[in-house]
């Protein structure tokens, strides 16, 4: 960020998830009128500051129909599911770091025949349903905002969250970030799950109560957790206080990746082109 005394003439900022746009960052840009972010998540932007200073926020939320076929995050989520189930990172570490060849230590199950529970059946949730069906899984989903007609397009059984938690072998979170969805999966929901259940979190960090998940792992009440997003990932030194990171270091079945689900050349090029078109139309309208 620029120093306040420099007072740069910047009308529009284009950013991705790597930069936290809080009040301290935005304050020097006194002429700023818009922020353009080629992302669906906007937790990296201080909405309150923008509202107080009449700064418009433009994102992929305004162009969801144009990103329906982007599958990078969905593919990463499915990869995490396989890796978590088969304990691939832990097995790799055992061989490479510990020089051990312990086949029986990583005995697991095949994914065919298992039940995947999707919390949210939007773009990524529907991709996951199709992938799971191709692998011979049973799929159930809960999403109060999705019509019955949309459910009928996928090989998915509609259930409520309580039933999903009780019956699913693997729970994958794909809900939106709202105040109602804060810690949607917490201690109460985890207590309903099978002790062998796996949780995948690749949507929004606030959907999962990470401390409750870590405690369940430590008490052998949960089979594993894989996260590509963490609740406090925009905070300084957030990893130092991460309960899931501590659980991983203790040897529990945890996989953490640094929000790389959508970080592919293909997805980034497409989303940036979508937002470039949006910005062009925005400027053309203002000029007109």
Describe the protein's topology.
Layout: E1 12-14, H1 23-26, E2 34-37, H2 47-52, E3 56-59, H3 72-85, H4 88-96, E4 115-119, H5 123-134, E5 138-142, H6 148-152, E6 157-158, H7 161-167, E7 170-173, H8 187-192, E8 198-201, H9 210-218, E9 224-227, H10 243-249, E10 254-256, H11 265-287
Parallel strand pairs: 1-2, 2-3, 4-5, 4-7, 5-6, 7-8, 8-9, 9-10
Helix pairs in contact: 3-5, 9-10
Features:
single chain, 288 residues, alpha/beta, 7-stranded parallel beta sheet, 3-stranded parallel beta sheet, 11 helices, 35% helix
Q: How would you describe this structure to a colleague?
A:
The protein is an alpha/beta fold. Helices cover 35% and strands 13% of the residues. It has eleven helices and ten strands. The protein has helices spanning 23-26, 47-52, 72-85, 88-96, 123-134, 148-152, 161-167, 187-192, 210-218, 243-249, 265-287, and strands at residues 12-14, 34-37, 56-59, 115-119, 138-142, 157-158, 170-173, 198-201, 224-227, 254-256. The strands form two sheets. Strands 6-5-4-7-8-9-10 form a seven-stranded parallel beta sheet, sandwiched between helices. A three-stranded parallel beta sheet has the order 1-2-3. The longest helix has 23 residues, at 265-287. The mean pLDDT is 93.
């Amino acid at each position: 960020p620029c120093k306040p005394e420099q007072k740069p003439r910047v009308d529009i900022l284009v950013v991705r998830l790597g930069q936290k746009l809080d009040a301290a960052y935005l304050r020097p840009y006194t002429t700023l009128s818009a922020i353009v972010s080629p992302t669906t998540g906007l937790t990296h932007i201080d909405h309150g500051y923008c509202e107080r200073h009449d700064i418009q926020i433009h994102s992929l939320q305004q162009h969801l129909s144009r990103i329906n076929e982007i599958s990078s995050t969905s593919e990463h989520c499915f990869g995490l599911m396989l890796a978590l189930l088969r304990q691939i990172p832990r097995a790799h570490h055992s061989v490479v770091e510990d020089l051990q060849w312990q086949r029986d230590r990583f005995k697991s199950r095949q994914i065919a025949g298992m039940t995947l529970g999707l919390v949210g059946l939007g773009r990524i949730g529907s991709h996951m349903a199709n992938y799971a069906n191709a692998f011979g899984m049973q799929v159930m989903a809960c999403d109060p905002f999705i019509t019955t007609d949309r459910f009928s397009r996928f090989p998915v059984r509609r259930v409520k969250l309580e039933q999903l938690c009780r019956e699913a072998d693997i729970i994958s979170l794909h809900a939106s970030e709202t105040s109602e969805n804060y810690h949607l999966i917490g201690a109460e929901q985890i207590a309903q799950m099978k002790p062998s259940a796996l949780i995948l979190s690749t949507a929004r960090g606030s959907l999962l109560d990470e401390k409750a998940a870590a405690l369940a792992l430590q008490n052998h009440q949960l089979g594993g957790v894989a996260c590509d997003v963490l609740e406090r990932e925009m905070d300084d030194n957030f990893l130092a206080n991460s309960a899931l990171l501590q659980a991983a270091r203790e040897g529990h079945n945890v996989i953490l990746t640094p929000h790389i689900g959508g970080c592919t050349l293909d997805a980034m090029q497409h989303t940036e082109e979508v937002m470039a078109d949006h910005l062009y139309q925005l400027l053309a309208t203002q000029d007109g």
